[in-house]
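Example S7 (structure tokens).
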């Protein structure tokens, strides 16, 4: 008899099959997402240098994941969209740094606003969420939040620099990435009484 963990995968596989989805997508995305989440849980040295190194690693792993998840599935459109989202977010952050020079908390230069690391990390996370759903997006956003926090702890940015970078990256990721076939969707709704977001699952 299958163990509980195996049973969950069997049920997920059956649900995916009924929805006409590639079964391996769930396992590949989940495996990569778990690996990313483990990075955020790793201990970080208390020094600003240690936080800076951790933010570099977190950003680089997220960017790699945003490009690797489409690649392992042969989803080349997803790769192009992920790359475009990250490049646009990084470019926008760079342009704002030049337009609004602000001194970093560690006084190293005047390129504090906004956080480029946060912009690129959140762009990568948003592409995974928007393209493949919450299984890939939730842990990716957790790591992106870790990256933004690490930049503040490293004294490379003020908190509002990180928030601005996160907003730029999230907007870029969601605007430039199209939804891949997925069984889970976040859908906006509105009527005369108000509006909001609805979670739709296809089984």
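Recovered sequence:
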């Amino acid at each position: 008899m299958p163990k509980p963990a195996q049973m969950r995968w069997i049920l997920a596989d059956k649900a995916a099959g009924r929805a006409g989805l590639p079964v391996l997508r769930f396992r590949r995305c989940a495996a990569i997402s778990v690996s990313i989440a483990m990075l955020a849980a790793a201990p970080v040295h208390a020094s600003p240098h240690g936080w800076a190194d951790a933010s570099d690693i977190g950003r680089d792993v997220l960017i790699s994941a945003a490009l690797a998840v489409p690649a392992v599935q042969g989803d080349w459109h997803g790769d192009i969209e992920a790359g475009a989202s990250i490049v646009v977010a990084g470019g926008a952050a760079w342009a704002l740094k030049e337009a609004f020079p602000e001194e970093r908390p560690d006084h190293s230069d005047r390129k504090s606003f906004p956080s480029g690391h946060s912009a690129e990390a959140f762009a990568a996370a948003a592409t995974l969420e928007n393209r493949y759903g919450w299984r890939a997006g939730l842990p990716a956003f957790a790591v992106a939040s870790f990256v933004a926090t690490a930049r503040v702890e490293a004294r490379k940015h003020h908190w509002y620099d990180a928030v601005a970078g996160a907003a730029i990256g999230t907007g870029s990721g969601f605007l430039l990435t199209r939804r891949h076939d997925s069984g889970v969707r976040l859908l906006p709704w509105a009527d005369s009484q108000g509006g909001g977001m609805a979670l739709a699952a296809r089984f």
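Notes on this example. The CA atoms of residues 58 and 147 lie 6 Å apart.
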